[in-house]
Every structure is written in C-alpha cells, then in structure tokens.
Design a protein that fits this description.
Largest sheet: 5 strands, mixed
CATH class of the domain at 261-372: Alpha Beta
Helix content: 40-55%
Number of strands: 12
Distance between the termini: 26 Å
Strand order of the largest sheet: 5-6-1-7-8
Structural class: alpha+beta
Number of helices: 18
Bound molecules: magnesium ion
Radius of gyration: 24 Å
Length: 427
C-alpha cells in the first residue's frame, strides 16, 4: 500500500483487544441438508438440495441448503431451484422442514448451555458462546469448545465447525478456516500474523460491492485494509468505516448476547395529535419535519442508528395507516429520515385529501447501537436481521411452546436471510 497515511495518525477510539480467546463460534456444517441426511439413510452420500418452496417438484423457489455432495457442483443456498436442477440431474430435491431445523437448533443451544449460560443463537445454524466465566471449570475455553463439538456429534449426530477467538469477529472467522468439521483456535498474540495475509473479503460483512472498491484502490488483504486511514473509510462507508478499520485489526467490541442482553429498545418514534384534523399538506410536512428532528435527536443522544422509517397517520378518526421503507444506510440524521418520511406521505396524498389526518407520526426501527459510545462493530451491523428473527422465534417459543412458530415468521427469516441490502454478507 502506498499513498496512505499510516493508520496511527487517525484518532480512533477502539475497544481494547481482549487478552484471552474466550469466545466460541459454532457453525453447523451444511445444516439443513445434514439434518435431513441424518434422518433419512437414502439421502446419505448423495447430492441433496433442500428447497424453500411448497413443491420441490416445481422449478420455482430457492435453494436453502445443499449437501456437500451437491456443493461440488456449485449449488448452494440462495441459488434458484431452476438453476440447481440444470446442473444437478440426479440430485434429490426436497422441501425444507424448518420446524425440525429450529427444534434441532434449540437442542444445540441446550447442549451449549450446559457449559455456559451466555449463549447467543446468532442464526439458525450459528451460535456464539462466551466461556470467560466458566473456562476454569473445564481446563480452558478450547476444551469447552471441543467438548461442545463432541456432544453435538455424539448426541445429535451432526458436525459443527468451531472457531475460538478473543471476540465474536475473530471466532466467526476462525470457524471458517477448516470447514467442515473444523476446529480452529486463534490466540490474541497470533492475530496480526493470522489476519494480515487473509483476503479482505474474508472480513464478516465485506460484500461484493465493498470488495470491488477495495480492489480498485489496491487493498487486497486484511493487512492492506489495516493501513488505510480510518478517515478515508468513514468518508467512504459512513459508520461502517470505523468498524471496518477495527475489524482489520481483529478488534470487535460486540458482546455475546445471552438471554439477559436482549435489545429492549425496538424503535424511536414521535407522534403529534391534530385535533379534528388538518388537510394542509405543507403544514403537515412542517410538522413531520419537527417530529423527525425530535426522533433523530433522541437517537443521537442514546447512540442508536436505524434503517426502517415508518410514517403513521390516523385519518379522520376513522382508521390508521402506517407505511414503511427501509433505507440503504443506517442513520440517526433527520436529513436522511425526513425525505423518506415525506415520500411515504406523498404517496398517500389522495387519502390525506379525503380524510384529514388527526394524528401524524414518524418512527425509526431496525436499530443498531454504538455500545457506550464505542465504535460500532461491523459484525453488529450486518447480521442483525438473522439475530432479530432468532430472538423473535425464541420469544414465541418461550411463551407458547415448541409448536407455536408460524410459517409467516419462517418466511420472514428466509427473506431476510437471503437479502442483505448494501452490505452483503461474505459467504
Ligand atoms: Mg453453517
């Protein structure tokens, strides 16, 4: 790298690098396909494609998992069933049984919880475990990780790739090192040597678009990225820039969200009652701007950024509507939120004329937070969606029992799992 100022010149408040590798990441290998192969001897050793579709005989739908036998043909999650059937003439195509997978995930979680009660179900096939409080009972975090891996193998007959590192970012990258059935420990002291030569695309959250940009400026490895001044990165990628800089150094301030650490704040919103109704659109937009500024101010004060903007209108005391749009960027600024709210408002122009609003409101959800003013982790930003749904599913099950997860939420999960706008998950 030439032409860049050395990174030391950039002032960054980074979370300190942990001194011990106490975070475990479990990534189940070809999860849905492995569960099916486990339960059906006929499927073993053959290319098996689990589809997200009502009818696996049709050509519609999308692949939600492929066995390793199918992956050698390039078929993987996210590919259309049509494409998969073109390259895999003799494969078995089945519809996914998501209730079964979620149930199995719960079993995996229970196994992990025998060792530590700080367990985060991060997505349906990935879990984080914080072993810092319990490692002395088992002879170290690596032993905890190995025992969990063995218990999953023995009791559930499934393999997991396991990574151990000083934080979630490093642990997650470590679990990628040796798939399937891998086991990789990265100690803090080894971090710079291990990280620097890796391709920059290996950082969790660096998607194709970002990678293209890095290619263009000659940043090929994580080591190269560490040399890019943080100011450059923040100018280019907004709040994600600082997180990227930290990530390049293996620094990640996010915590393993056990049961106690669940997000409480879901949205920030302000509303304004309008008496018997106002139909003057300019006046309504002026009010909307004031509400938006209030919301943005509160978000900044409490350190939140959000992506989903919702407009609420009560119309002539007769009915209420809410309209939402998800933006490409996380923001906490009125200048980003207001135009979206206005666009939503303009679309309801006719309704507003017909039924003068008696209440107007704006809110921002899909939140992420900078923890106690610490730099945001790349990691926190990116797979938030998976996490939200896992937590939602958990919450439903805690409340209503195992059978209460509706197909609707699975569909939501699926949609979210396959579409990660702007920041594509590197997979
Ligand atoms: Mg997996």
């Amino acid at each position: 790298m030439t032409g860049f100022i050395p990174r030391d010149s950039a002032a960054v408040d980074s979370p300190p690098l942990a001194t011990a590798s106490d975070i475990i990441h479990l990534d189940m290998d070809a999860y849905f396909a492995s569960v099916e192969q486990r339960d059906m001897p006929l499927y073993r050793g053959r290319p098996l494609v689990v589809c997200h579709t009502d009818d696996p005989n049709s050509l519609r739908g999308v692949v939600s998992a492929a066995s390793y036998e199918a992956r050698t043909y390039g078929v993987k999650a996210g590919v259309s069933v049509l494409e998969a059937k073109k390259v895999l003439k003799n494969a078995i195509f089945i519809a996914g049984n998501y209730d079964k997978y979620l149930h199995t995930t719960r079993q995996i979680k229970e196994i992990c919880r025998r060792y530590s009660d700080i367990v985060e179900v991060y997505s349906v096939d990935e879990l984080f475990i914080d072993a810092s409080k319990v490692k002395h009972l088992f002879g170290g975090t690596a032993r905890v990780a190995l025992e969990i891996k063995r218990a999953i193998q023995n009791e559930l007959n499934l393999t997991a790739s396991v990574g151990v590192g000083p934080n979630k970012l490093v642990a997650k990258m470590a679990s990628e090192f040796n798939k399937p059935d891998g086991f990789t420990v990265i100690e803090p002291d080894d971090l710079p040597d291990v990280f620097a030569p890796l391709p920059v695309g290996d950082i969790v959250g660096v998607g194709r678009r970002m990678k293209r940009h890095f290619d263009a400026i000659g940043v090929k490895t994580i080591g190269d990225l560490a040399d890019v001044p943080v100011d450059y990165l923040t100018a280019k990628f907004g709040i994600v820039g600082a997180a990227l800089h930290n990530a390049s150094l293996g620094i990640d301030g996010s915590v393993v969200a056990g049961r106690q650490a669940r997000e409480i704040v879901k949205s920030f919103g302000h509303t304004h009652a309008l008496g018997s109704g106002i139909s003057d659109k300019r006046e309504l937009k002026r009010l909307l701007l004031g509400l938006t500024e209030g919301v943005a101010r509160r978000m900044r004060r409490e350190g939140y950024y959000g992506r989903a903007i919702t407009l609420r209108l009560s119309l002539a005391r007769m009915f209420s509507i809410s309209r939402s749009k998800t933006t490409a960027y996380f923001t906490q600024e009125a200048k980003d939120i207001y135009p979206v709210a206005v666009a939503l408002f303009d679309r309801e122009s006719e309704l507003v004329e017909q039924y003068p609003p008696t209440l107007i409101g704006v809110s921002v959800s899909r939140l992420i937070r900078t923890e106690d003013g610490i730099q945001l982790s790349v990691f926190d930003i990116i797979e938030r969606k998976n996490k939200e749904l896992t937590v939602a599913v958990d919450a439903i099950r805690d409340k209503f029992g195992e059978r209460a997860v509706f197909r609707a939420s699975l569909d939501t999960w699926k949609r979210q799992h396959h579409t990660v706008p702007r920041l594509e998950v590197a997979k």
